[in-house]
Structures are given as C-alpha cells and as structure tokens.
C-alpha cells in the first residue's frame, strides 16, 4: 500500500515562497496529474516528494511513513525525467538494470527484472542497442523501464513527453496508461499539457501560483470548474468568457450584448452583481450542428456573422462576432461557411457558467 499524503507542504527559496502550504491525498494505486502554467509549483512539489528538493514546511507521507528527512533511494519511489537521463555508453539492458547493479542485486535477478520490464514496454528487440541508436520515443520507454525494474511503490513522472513530437507523445502516452493498468502502482505525473492530464489521470490537481485551485476527476474539472482560472485553463479551445452584470433575469455583458440569466443561477446572484459569464465552445454552435441539452427552452438563438473558420476534419471551429469580439464555437457535422456570412447560433445556456467577479469562484456549482 503506497498512498502519498502532503500536509501543509511549503517550499521557500530564501524569502521567496513558491509552494504555499498545500494539502493533497493521493490514494494507493491512483494516477494523479499535477497540471498548471509554468511557475505554478507543480515540478517543485514533485521534486519534494522525490526527495530532490528540501521541504521548507509541512510533511510528506509515503505509505503512511513521514519521509521528509529520507534520501530519495529510501523513499521507495522511481522517477522518470523529461530528459531521459540515459548513460550513452551503456546498452538498453545495462541502463535499465543499473540501479539494481548498484544495489548489489544478483546478475540473475537483474536479467529477470530487465526482461520483465522489456516485455511490458516492447523493448525486447532493443536490449543490445545504445541510446544513440534509439528514437526519442524508444529512449523514453527505456527510461520508464529503468523505473519499472526497481518495482517501486510510487512512480513519479516529470513532464516525460515534452521532448517528443506530437505523434510520439500520443504513442508514449498510451504506453504510460497501459503501464498503470498493468502495474497498479501509485503514479504522480507532472505536465503542462492538459490533454495528457485529462487522458491519463484518475484525478487532476490544478495548480496556480503555488496553490491548489481544484482537485477532481477530468469530468469534474471540465464540466464543473471551481474557479474562473480553472475554467479558462482546462479545455481546448478555452471557454468563452466575458464580464457581465446581473439585471433582473438578464445578463448585460461588458460589450453591451445581453443574454438571458439561466434560471439555475437566479437564487445565487443579486440584482446588480458583477459576474463573469462563461460558455464552452461545445455549447455554442451553428444551429443544428452541435449537441444540445434536452431542455430546448435553455437554448438561446442569435443570428451572428462568421469571422473565420478552422476546419479540423470531423469538426470545424467557427469564430463568430459577438459582443464586439470573436467567440469560438465547435461545429459538428461540418458544412461550408464563409467569412462574413451571418448564421443562426445556438447558445446552450443550460451549460453556462458564472463566476464571482471578485473572488473568481464558481456560482451555483
């Protein structure tokens, strides 16, 4: 059993505090992704868990044991780095088995564990090659194999796919998902790529400026963002958002346009209150060319001009002029549209979001 618990975890560099007393419980065998913009503290948090950064305050528990003062080798963790960190003069097999050799394990045990890891990652035919003879994706799988042979309780991944091209990222991402299903180990994965976080993890931890903004399943953070920051960070393209004022049963947007106030928010806002209105591209679409809620009364239609389109094959992103700027929508079952053409657009207000203009927290969630 290897749950990981962070209690009031703090990291300071001199007078500068970069991680501000965060709390997090990672369950045994859970896959957690730490995601956020550069400088949010996610890699620093991972390195503290690994023992590569000293803890300035709070505690880290692995398997129920406080590990603050333990060196990395005593924490029963393995870490996969962004840079592969393979020894160029060693073969794949030697790289994978090196940590076991240093630990004094027998040649037979090393050979057995390397073979098992090679089978899991389809590296058997590459064991005699050196890193210079491998592709980027193969090198990253070797780095993963080196972590597997140690049979740790916890795997830590620090942006392992950031050096790979788009196709290889998809392939290796699949390998990591298969690895978790097969190993059933606790995994903590740091990335700035929300697609990696959404597709790989059981739960996502979204960080900002050294704080945790929200922890939840991919569905939670996408459909029920706790803050305006989360709403804008998760989702591609990002959520359409605009400042607004509540006026009775109407939202007056900052640019002068109006939309009906969705009924579910009427009990949680006051007349004259300043809010941020948000609607995802999936919930704004050319009429008849999207997925809408079962309640037809929640769909508000406006005729608006097209600014530009981005065809993506099975869907098209449509930028429309609304409230003095471009709003992006997602059109399923694409049909040709021309710049400047006016079309009927459906706003599915049953899926709208409101956030407090001061605190940024979700309203009516």
Question: Would you write up a description of this structure?
Answer:
The protein is an alpha+beta fold and 365 residues long. It has eight helices and 20 strands. The protein is globular, with a radius of gyration of 24 Å. The two termini are 34 Å apart.
Structural class: alpha+beta
Largest sheet: 6 strands, mixed
Strand line-up across the major sheet: 6-7-8-3-9-10
CA radius of gyration is 24 Å
Distance between the termini: 34 Å
Low-confidence stretches are: none
Provide the succession of SSEs.
EEEHEEEHHHEHEHEEHHEEEEEEEEEE
Overall outline: globular
Relative strand content:
25-35%
Instruction: Give the total of beta strands.
Output: 20
Fraction of residues in H or I helices: 10-25%
pLDDT averaged over residues: 91
Counted by DSSP, the helix tally is: 8
Question: How does the SSE layout of this entry go?
Answer:
Layout: E1 4-13, E2 16-26, E3 31-35, H1 42-50, E4 57-62, E5 65-66, E6 77-80, H2 92-102, H3 107-120, H4 136-148, E7 154-158, H5 166-183, E8 186-191, H6 194-200, E9 203-208, E10 211-216, H7 218-223, H8 228-233, E11 240-247, E12 250-253, E13 258-260, E14 274-279, E15 284-286, E16 299-311, E17 315-322, E18 325-332, E19 342-348, E20 353-356
Parallel strand pairs: 3-8, 3-9, 6-7, 7-8
Antiparallel strand pairs: 1-2, 1-4, 4-5, 9-10, 11-12, 11-14, 12-13, 14-20, 15-19, 16-17, 16-19, 17-18
Helix pairs in contact: 2-3, 2-4, 3-4, 4-5
């Amino acid at each position: 059993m290897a749950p990981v618990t962070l209690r009031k975890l703090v990291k300071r560099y001199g007078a500068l505090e970069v991680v501000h007393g965060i709390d997090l419980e990672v369950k045994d065998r859970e896959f957690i992704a730490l995601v956020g913009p550069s400088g949010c503290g996610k890699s620093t948090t991972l390195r503290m868990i690994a023992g590569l950064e000293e803890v300035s305050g709070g505690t880290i528990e692995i398997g129920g044991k406080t590990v603050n003062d333990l060196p990395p080798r005593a924490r029963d963790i393995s870490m996969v780095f962004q840079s592969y960190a393979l020894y160029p003069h060693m073969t794949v097999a030697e790289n994978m088995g090196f940590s076991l050799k240093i630990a004094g394990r027998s040649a037979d045990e090393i050979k057995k564990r390397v073979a098992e890891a090679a089978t899991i990652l389809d590296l058997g035919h590459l064991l005699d090659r050196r890193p210079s003879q491998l592709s980027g994706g193969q090198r990253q799988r070797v780095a993963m194999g080196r972590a597997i042979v140690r049979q740790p309780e916890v795997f830590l991944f620090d942006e392992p796919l950031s050096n790979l091209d788009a196709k290889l990222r998809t392939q290796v991402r699949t390998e990591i998902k298969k690895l978790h299903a097969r190993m059933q180990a606790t995994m903590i994965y740091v990335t700035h790529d929300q697609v990696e976080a959404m597709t790989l993890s059981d739960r996502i931890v979204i960080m900002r400026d050294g704080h945790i903004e929200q922890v939840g399943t991919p569905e939670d953070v996408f459909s029920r963002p706790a803050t305006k920051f989360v709403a804008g960070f998760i989702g591609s393209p990002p959520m359409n958002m605009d400042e607004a004022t509540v006026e009775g049963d109407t939202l007056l947007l900052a640019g002068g346009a109006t939309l009906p106030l969705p009924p579910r928010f009427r009990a949680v806002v006051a007349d004259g209150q300043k809010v941020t209105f948000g609607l995802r591209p999936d919930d704004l679409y050319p009429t008849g060319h999207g997925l809408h809620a079962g309640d037809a009364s929640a769909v508000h239609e406006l005729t608006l001009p097209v600014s530009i389109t981005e065809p993506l094959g099975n869907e098209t992103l449509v930028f429309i002029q609304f409230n003095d700027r471009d709003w992006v929508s997602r059109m399923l079952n694409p049909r040709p549209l021309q710049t400047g053409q006016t079309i009927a657009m459906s706003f599915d207000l049953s899926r709208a979001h409101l956030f407090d203009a001061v605190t940024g927290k979700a309203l009516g969630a």
